[in-house]
Amino acid sequence: MEKIPQRTILFLIADTGAGHRSAANAIRNAITLISQKEQEVWHARQQIVSGTSTGAREQPATAVSSASPPAYRIEIVDVFEEYSRFPLREAVKLYGPAIRYNPKMYGRVFRLSNKYRSLTAVQTVASPLIHNGLLRLITSVQPDVIVSIHPLLNQFTLKALQDLHLHIPFITVVTDLVSLHYSWFAPGADAYIVPTEEARELYLARKLDPDRVHVLGMPIDPKFTRPTASKQELQRKIGLEPGLPVVLLVGGGDGAGGLQVAVRAISRARLPVQLLIITGRNKRLYAYLQRTRKNLRVPAKVFGFVQNMPEMMRASDVIITKAGPGTINEALACDLPIILSGYVPGQEEGNVDFVLKNDVGILAHDSIELVDGLRRLIKPGSVTMRRQVANAKRLSRPHASFDIASCILSFLLPAGQPGPWQTSLARNRRPSMSMRLRSSEVRLRSLRRRLPRMTRVSFLKSPVVSRLSRMRASGFPPRFIGLADKNQDNTT
Prior knowledge:
The chain is of the alpha/beta class. The protein has 3 domains: 223 residues, Rossmann fold; 172 residues, Rossmann fold; 36 residues, no CATH class. Helix content is 51%, strand content 12%.
């Protein structure tokens, strides 16, 4: 039996929020479906060839049969968590607390680092903490193509590939719509896949090769391309009341984004709607809303983390969410008008502009604007509703994951050719790289021994780090700072 050739694709991510892993999973799922289709087509052709050769002995089957399509081995790796060193690994974990408890500070950091000199300084300091880890990762996985879905990993990976002296195609998939950090476009990648024309313009402003940029959309799960039941049938399946507008409230994977405030505002306004609330992984918020749901003045269904988001969205009439790029594009794929309840300064400001410029939704700065915007949308015969639904249909790209997957697969060598790790150069490089890695490990261990013990231990035992660790373990309760305590007391 012929052995099926295999190609390895390595996705580099960082779990700073759920968006990067979701994008990688979406592309992986699209590649899996493409592979299944390739195998089905090949087997169908083989059956035809076999039938033809049986009826005509003078034409052997081997003369017309083709090599089987490759199988794809896909690895998705959180590089900072698994292959970087302290303190870089711990510093990356501060992203979640920063955007939740001090988003203005995060916005300032985003802007300050969004320059060539600032980024170069950060990379110079951080490179020794991740470089050898990347070398170990790449040489152990031996990928045929590498895909980065996080901006801070691009320059580090390109430097590691230079040290390996192997040409492994490196592709950057940008997962921000408009406000792109400078680090997204590290020179030297084989391709840059961007979601919008605005992102492409930023790329071209960097004077990079225009032939390497591809506007293919934002990767969302292939489930959004599949047909579902009608809106009425979905509402009945979920247990919603017929004939009453459905407002979907989504807080992202971690349930952030002002869900609780939005629910209370709609309830106080007694709008003629019913709520479909998805709290994500925020178990505290889920438990709180379940306890207080009977006190709301509008019907409500509360869910935690769900796997059937396409059905949830297509059962709804409006979505209220923070300005995450993934949720925005999922909503567009389901023809949903969008009310943005918040955004991360710097990083998500461009997403707000994208929604407003294309007239697919509004930004609610406070509860009053949220209620007024929702009231305009649910009004019978709403012109605003019809216009924004039409704009969403025009703007959506539900098949983006398949387009991105096809672009990535185009960088793989044909099945009959040896990959970059099968060449004589690669085989000769492996022993020297292993020796180099072992030598680097020895030097780093020696450096740590020479550092004063208090320098190494004091940071780990500092009150800030200890408190952050406890908060991570308990789901980041909002009592992190006094201001959050005060805000919570005012809303309970």
